[in-house]
UniProtKB/TrEMBL annotation:
Protein name, as recorded: HEAT repeat-containing protein
Higher taxonomy: Bacteria, Pseudomonadati, Bacteroidota, Bacteroidia, Bacteroidales
Amino acid sequence: MTSERLRQTFSEDGAQEIYQDIQATGDFLGFARRYAFDSDYRVARSALWGLTKATNEELSALQVIQNELIDQAMQTENSSVRRLTLNIIERLKMDEDNLRTDFLDFCFEHMVSIEEFPGIQTLCMKLAFRMCSFYPELMDELKRTLEALEIDYYKPAVKCLRKRILSGMFR
């Protein structure tokens, strides 16, 4: 796998090929460290896209870089890199002991931002739910925030997830 090859991947088939190459080596962590944080957003995007094809078990190898992934999601200016990074974070284990309040604040901010893409909004909502589930007072804050949304401004995916969370149907 080379940066140049990743820079040229623009299709679902290309992402599947990247995943198959990573799977053949079995080095999900090494691949992520080498390419997922590349300063060229096209390389990072393609690497992350390929990683999203992995099973949850395969992605568990990335648990040790969860904080670096969180930092990337919060700092990148590229919405594709942000969405794909959030997708991976959402599939990793999250513990009460390592809850990052800066990331929780980020998720709250981006899940309600009407300027944000719906994919990012819903991932942030899911992640906020997971983090808040450790603390009843935070869950109450999440529910108040979701109830206060002017829901007409949001896309169907956001409306549906909001409804599922508020009705207790989301787990």
